[in-house]
Amino acid sequence: MTHGAGAPPTVTRRGEERPRPAGLKTAAHDARPLAALAVVFTLAQLFLIRPTLGLGWDEIVYTSQVTTHHPAAFFSAPRSRGVSLLVAPVASWSDSTALLRIYLALLSGLGLYLALRVWRGLFPTRVLVVAGAFFASLWMTLFYGPQAMPNYWVAVGALIAVGAFLRHREDPSSAGMLWAVVAGAALMAWMRPTDAVYVTIPLLVLAAVRRRPRLLAAVVGGLLAGGVPWVIEAYASYGGLSERLAEASRIQGGLGLHMAVDDQLRSLGGRALCRPCTGEMPHPVITLWWFVLPVLAVLGLVVAVRAGRALRTAVPLACAVTAALPYLFTIAYAAPRFLQPAYALLAIPVADALWHLVTAPRGRWRTVLRTVVAVGLAGHLVVQVTVAVHTADRSAASREDWARTAEGLHRLGVTPPCLITGHESIPIGYYTGCSSGATAGNNENMTAEEIRRTAGRVPVAEITRVGSRPNAYARTWPVHRVEDYDIRLAPAPDAPRE
Fold it and tell me: Transmembrane stretches, by residue range (predicted)?
C-alpha cells in the first residue's frame, strides 16, 4: 500500500512498540558493558580507598587555591590550575573531604566511561572492557582516581584524544570526533601542559605527514586551549615562559639524562613519591606485570599488523612511549602516577593481545593459554588491590599525623589567622587552618623579615623534627613538643590580632 499525502495515518495498537533503528539498539547495547565497568570502578574506589582519607600534600596545594576555608598554599612553577578548577564545584563551598572524594570518584568513573566510548568502532567492545578493566584495576588508578591530582585526567584526555583522532582519520565526516580531539588535548594541557605535548607528538607527526590539516588544527587547538592559561601565568607570575620552565626543571631536580626506570620499579610497591628513590626493590610478584606489559603490547601490534589494522594499535603504542620517556629517562626520581597516561594507552593493545591468546589457538593450546591468562589476571588483580589498600592505609596514617599535630598547635594557641613555617609546613598549615611559609627550597615564598613582621600580628610556629636545627629566625623561640615535632612559637604579638 502506498502512503501518500491523503493516506490515513498509521495506527499502532496498544501494547505494540515501534521498532527502533538497529544502529541505536546496537550502540546502546555496546555501551552497557562500558557503563557497568565504570560503575564497578567507582564503587571500588569508594570501598578500597575510602572517602575519609585526608588530603595529601599536592592535593592541599591544588584544593587550597579555590576553597574559602583555608589560605592558599604556595603554587610552584610545574603545577597547572586544571585540578583546582576540577575540584572547584565542591571545594569552593564545602571543606568536607569525604564529599570531595565521592565527587571525584563519580567523576573519574564517568571519565573512564566517556574515554572508552570514543574507541568504539576501532576495537570490539570486549577488547575495550578488558582494556578499561586492566587500567582501572591498577593500584595507582584506584588510589588516585578519587584524589585531586592531575595524572589520571591526563590519562583520560589521552584516551579521548588518541581514540577520536583515529576515528576521525577513518571517517573524516565525523565532526564530533574532531571536537573530541580538541577536548582530549585540552584536558591534558589543562592538567599538565608538558605531558600533553609529549602524548600528542605522534599525533602531530602523523597529521602533518598524512596531510590532515583539520586533525592537525584540532590537536594544536586543544593544546592551546588548555595550555595558554599556563603560559599567561608564566608571564604574569614567573617572569616569562622560559623562566617558568627553568624553575620547573630546578624544582624537579634538574631535567636531563637520568635513568629512572629502576626508580619506577621501586615505586610500584606503593610509594606515592620515590624521592630520593632508595631501598630494596619490591617483591617480584608486585613488579611482574610491569615486564609483561610491553610484551603483550608488542604482541597486540603483531596481531593488528596481521589483521590489516596496524595503525589503530601503532598510534596508541607510539603515544604511550612518548608519554613515558620523560619520566623514565629525564628525571632523577619517580612516582607511579607519572606513567598513568602510558598505562591507559597501552591497555588497548594489551587487551587485544589477551583476547587473541584466548581465542586464536585451537586444540589443547587454547585450553592452556586460557588457563594461564585467567590465573595471571586473577593474580594481577589480587596484587593490585593489596597494594592499593596498603598504600591507602599508609597514606591515611601520615595524614592523621598531620591532623594530630594541628590539634596540638591549636592547644598551644595557634589558631587562624596564623602562619606555619619549617618542616611540612604546607600540609600541617592546611590542617591547622594557617598559611604556610618557607624561606628556602622548592616552596620558597617568604623572607625571614616577612616572617618576623607576620609574628607581630598573628601566631607563628616553626616546625622541625625533634632535635633538628630550626631556621635562624626561630632559634630563640620557646620550644614545645607535639607528636614527633619540635614546635617553636614566636613571642606573642604586641598588636591585636587581625
Answer: 34-53, 98-115, 127-145, 215-232, 288-307, 314-335
Count other Cβ atoms within 10 Å, centred on residue 245: 16
Contact 137, 384 (CB under 8 A): yes
Helices (H), 268-339: 284-306, 310-329
Q: Determine what percent of the chain is predicted with pLDDT higher than 90.
A: 86
Residue 169 has pLDDT above 50, yes or no: yes
Q: Looking at residues 113-133, what average pLDDT do you find?
A: 97
- pLDDT for position 9: 43
R_g of the chain computed on alpha carbons: 26
| Per-residue pLDDT tens digits for 242-292 | 999 999 999 988 889 999 999 999 999 999 998 888 888 999 999 999 999
Cα 45 from chain centroid (whole Å): 14
Residue appearing with cell numbers 563519580: 106
Q: Looking at the chain, how many residues does it have?
A: 498
Reply yes or no on whether the pLDDT at 87 is more than 50: yes
Count of other CB atoms within 10 angstroms of residue 89:
13
Cell 577520536 belongs to: 164
The rounded Cα 181 to chain-centroid distance in angstroms is: 19
Q: For residues 85 and 189, is the Cβ–Cβ distance under 8 A?
A: no
What are the beta bridge partners of residue 462? 421, 488
Alpha helices in 66-212 (DSSP H): 82-91, 97-118, 125-137, 139-144, 151-170, 175-191, 193-209
* Side chain identity at residue 169, one-letter code: R
At residue 83, the pLDDT reads 98
Residues 6+ apart with CB under 8 A from 250: none
Question: Who's near 35: CB < 8 A, 6+ residues apart?
Answer: 113
3-class SS of residue 462: strand
Q: What is the 3-state secondary structure (H, E, C) of 412-436?
A: CCCCCCCEEEECCHHHHHHHHCCEE
Give the pLDDT of residue 26.
52
Half-sphere exposure of 279 (CA within 13 A, CB side): 17
Cβ(312)–Cβ(304) below 8 Å: yes
**Residues of the chain with pLDDT > 70: what percent?**
93
pLDDT tens digits, one per residue of 460-488: 999 999 989 999 999 999 999 999 999 99
Pairs from 168-175 (Cβ < 8 Å, separation ≥ 24): 168/214, 168/215, 168/218, 169/210, 169/212, 169/215, 169/311, 170/122, 172/214
DSSP-assigned states of every residue in 384-402: HHHHHHHHHHHHHHHHHHH
Question: 459 and 414 in contact (C-beta within 8 Å)?
Answer: yes
- In this prediction, residue 5 carries a pLDDT of 39
Distances (CA, A) of 386 to 9, 391, 432: 64, 9, 32
